[in-house]
Design goal:
InterPro entries: Aldolase_TIM, DUF512, PDZ_6, PDZ_sf, Put_radical_SAM-like_N, rSAM_sf. With about 450 residues, the chain is α/β, with parallel strands linked by helices. The chain folds into three domains: about 5-80, Pdz3 Domain, CATH 2.30.42; about 100-295, pyruvate-formate lyase- activating enzyme; about 305-435, 3-Layer(aba) Sandwich (Rossmann fold), CATH 3.40.50. It has 14 helices and 15 strands. The protein has helices at about 15-20, 40-45, 115-125, 135-140, 155-165, 175-180, 200-210, 240-260, 270-275, 300-315, 330-345, 375-380, 410-415, 425-435; strands at about 5-10, 25-30, 35, 50-55, 60-70, 75-80, 125, 150, 185-190, 215-225, 265-270, 320-330, 350-355, 390, 420-425. Strands 1, 2, 3, 4, 5 and 6 form a six-stranded antiparallel β-sheet that branches. The protein has a five-stranded parallel β-sheet with strand order 7-8-9-10-11. It starts with 5 loop residues before the first strand and ends with a helix. The structure holds iron/sulfur cluster. Iron/sulfur cluster binds near residues 92, 93, 97 and 115.
Length: about 450
């Protein structure tokens, strides 16, 4: 086993670690004589009432520390590397990989192809299981980690090898059996590619996946995202309205059958399918508690319902203000009608809603989360924006004040000469941002 140095980055005030005079820069060598592989080992190993820690101080001294504590009490240590191990990259070359379709010269971290099961538990990432050893699977079972999010794409082993460009991708599906037998909770996703894993293949895949109910909680089906940078890549065809109707028919048929049999809808269509098919978003109950919001499954229905609920509470008044909202092509009709709904109670509020086309990745990319700062600026320049421009927080890189193309919020404010308000993706936040009185 490869040994990673676990350098302590922070010691929390008032913690056991502080009391033991552990300091940032110290290295945790072992716990109860056991070498720590990663963050999961660490959390598992510290769940004891008596611990022996071996710590290497920055001056080279080795300290053996004996600790008595409550069973689940934390030590108050944060490590420089949150994963306590190197991030694992993927061993595939999927025919639909979004990273392969990104333009050059973007931030280097955006090109990192992770396929790390630890990130599945920590951040909800989806993994293909192709770089996981039996040891990794057994650790998940021992530590009862859950849920694990799996990119299935197809249950046809030969087709999976082709789609992932990895000869082990079909065999990797056997690991799902082991997780199922151990009762590990899972979620799944299928990226659908036209004439490849759709139609009969999709029927077969859904049928096979239902065998893992109830431990497999949900599976989403999303259309492949295609940017304008697909030269030299596998030739993929875009889905049409008719295709979307067919995909939805298939999913609804399965939902009906599975709900009658197991009380779960299990298989869910991404919002994009409904928009492409020109169908209404389904009712909230069909999402089984919105298990796959991060995958764009049910986001629109949730927003519609939340805004509706907030609107019922609004009394309204005549306050006067002008503001603007910008969003992607996909969400535009919904955001426009929702803002009109709110403004009915506030006739003095003038809200301009703008649809931003994705020139950076190409017009086939319609989600707001992949808009760039430069596209927003160039398409809003010279338009009526009012005192504030509202943007949903999913246009920013997670946890940062920066758009995908490194444009900052303040650079956008200067370029557009208006304040930019970043709004959380929820109905309440949307309504509050809309009716907020200017200082
Ligand atoms: S698993 Fe496939 S889609 Fe994901 S990063 Fe790797 S190549 Fe790309």
């Amino acid at each position: 086993m490869k040994k990673t140095k676990h350098i302590i980055g922070r010691v929390l005030a008032g913690s056991i670690a502080e009391e033991m005079e552990i300091e940032p820069g110290d290295v945790l060598v072992s716990i109860n004589d056991k070498i720590i592989e990663d963050v999961f080992d660490y959390h598992y190993l510290i769940n004891e009432e008596y611990l022996e820690l071996l710590v290497e101080k920055s001056n080279g001294e080795e300290w053996e520390l004996e600790i008595e504590k409550e069973f689940e009490e934390d030590l108050g240590i944060e490590f420089e590397n949150g994963l306590m191990d190197e991030y694992r990259s993927c061993r595939n070359k999927c025919i639909f990989c979004f990273i392969d379709q990104m333009p050059k010269n973007m931030r280097e971290t955006l090109y990192f192809k992770d396929d790390d099961s630890r990130l599945s538990f920590l951040q909800g990432n989806y993994v293909t299981l192709t770089n996981m050893s039996d040891h990794d699977i057994e650790r998940i079972i021992t530590y009862k980690l859950a849920p694990i999010n799996i990119s299935f794409h197809t249950m046809n082993p030969a087709l999976r090898c082709q789609m992932l460009n990895n000869r082990f991708a079909g065999e990797a599906l056997k690991k799902v059996d082991r997780l199922y037998e151990a009762g590990i909770e899972m979620n799944g996703q299928i990226v659908l590619c036209k004439d490849i894993n759709d139609k009969k293949e999709l029927e077969y895949t859904i049928g096979e996946l239902t065998k893992y109910i109830p431990h497999l909680k949900s599976v989403s089906v999303v259309p492949v995202g295609m940017t304008q940078y697909r030269d030299d890549l596998f030739s993929l065809k875009p889905f049409t309205k008719e295709d979307a109707i067919e995909v939805l028919d298939c999913i609804h048929r399965w939902q009906k059958k599975l709900f009658a049999e197991f009380g779960t809808h299990f298989i869910h269509a991404g919002d994009e399918w409904y928009i492409l098919a020109g169908e209404e978003m389904p009712a909230e109950e069909t999402y089984d508690g919105y298990l796959q919001l991060e995958n764009g499954v049910g986001m629109t229905r949730l927003l519609l319902n939340e805004v509706e609920e907030e609107c019922q509470k609004l009394i309204g008044n005549n306050r006067k203000q002008e503001l603007s909202i910008a969003t992607g092509v996909l969400a535009y009709p919904y955001i426009k009608s929702l803002s009109e709904k709110v403004c009915q109670k506030y006739p003095g509020i003038q809200a301009y809603v703008y649809e931003i086309k994705n020139n950076f990745f190409g017009e086939r990319i319609t989600v707001a989360g992949l808009l760039t700062g430069n596209d927003i600026i160039s398409q809003l320049k010279g338009k009526d924006l009012g005192q504030r421009l509202l943007l949903s927080d999913n246009v920013l890189r997670s946890g940062e004040d920066v758009f995908l193309d490194d444009v900052t919020v303040s650079e956008m404010e200067i370029a557009l000469q208006t304040k930019v308000s970043i709004v959380k993706s929820s109905g309440r936040a949307f309504v509050e941002a809309l009716i907020q009185k200017e200082e």
